[in-house]
Design goal:
By secondary structure, the protein is an all-alpha fold. Helix content is about 70%, strand content about 0%. Helix 11 packs parallel to helix 12. It is elongated, with a radius of gyration of 23 Å. About 40% of the residues are buried.
Length: about 300
């Protein structure tokens, strides 16, 4: 006998089905929880960090972690070459990595959506100009390109965002262009065109809502790449400048002490590894759940 509740229950939307598929992926859900944990650490860093990340104490110079002889539990992960608490600097460093990653992806995705929609729907010379520009930017190695821009503009938080977003937009642009080319011939788009809808209306109201899923997935995965690039620039001294805590600069600071004071570089390196791995796994889970091409 059919349950009355099952009859009255409204059918699941596509979004609800995709969300249920994502929640069924335990590894992706756990990775998402790790990402949110890092975000919470970044937001509430002043409340969570046990010490001021920039306070130096030369009496604690290269103090080992708490479980190593000579360590203290009040300095759980030990201290760096200036006696600064490594745990506090890792927590504050999460702010830099996550903020720059999110800012670059937001700027790049916005530019990429506008350029990709224009190229895919308007076609003609607009598509030629945007596609050739994308091809030119893709011809340069990303890190070398960013290093060159940072060398010209100088180090700084805003300059890092601009240098990384300057080329990052080509990835969402190519995704949006491809999806737009496939969507512009759909019946609902043809119907809107036949009713006299403007190009702007068709691109924003008809096409964009139906191509956002792959864009969100790609942007999530690319955020991990941006975090690695930011850490690389900071490692080379072209990123956020001291005394601001940055994971890349912390790894760089510990190079001279890697043999006898391994913790100075190891723990910020593990923080980069854990966050990037979590974002990648969560992004793969989003792709598997929200992209119908990966459904069985």
């Amino acid at each position: 006998m059919t349950n009355v509740a099952e009859i009255s229950r409204p059918p699941e939307t596509i979004f609800q089905q995709n969300l249920r598929n994502f929640m069924g992926n335990r590894l992706a859900v756990a990775s998402t929880a790790v990402v949110f944990l890092f975000i919470l650490l970044a937001i509430f860093a002043p409340l969570i960090a046990p010490h001021d990340p920039n306070t130096t104490d030369l009496f604690r110079r290269l103090q080992p972690p708490a479980w190593v002889e000579g360590g203290e539990w009040s300095y759980l992960l030990g201290c760096d070459q200036l006696g600064r608490d490594i745990l506090s600097r890792i927590i504050y460093g999460a702010r830099i990595s996550i903020f720059i990653g999110a800012a670059v992806i937001l700027v790049a995705t916005t530019i990429g959506i506008i350029a990709g929609l224009s190229a895919g729907y308007l076609r003609g010379w607009v598509d030629v100009v945007i596609s050739r520009l994308v091809d030119i930017l893709l011809g340069f190695p990303y890190l070398i390109f960013a290093i060159g821009l940072m060398a010209m503009m100088g180090p700084g938080l805003i300059n890092i965002i601009l240098a990384l977003a300057y080329k990052e937009w080509v990835i969402p642009c190519r995704v949006v262009r491809g999806e737009t080319l496939a969507t512009r011939e759909q019946e609902y788009v043809e119907a809107a065109r036949a009713l006299g809808a403007s190009r702007k209306h068709i691109m924003i109201k008809e096409i964009l809502p139906n191509i956002l899923s792959p864009v969100v997935v790609v942007s999530t995965i690319r955020m991990a790449h941006v975090i690695i690039l930011e850490a690389s620039l900071s490692f080379l001294g072209l990123g956020v400048q001291p005394p601001t805590a940055s994971w890349g600069s912390m790894v760089s600071d510990g190079r001279a002490f890697i043999l006898e004071s391994w913790w100075v570089s190891t723990f910020p390196g593990l923080a980069i590894l854990l966050l990037v791995l979590a974002i990648n796994v969560a992004g793969q889970g989003l792709r598997d759940a929200f992209d119908p091409r990966f459904h069985e």
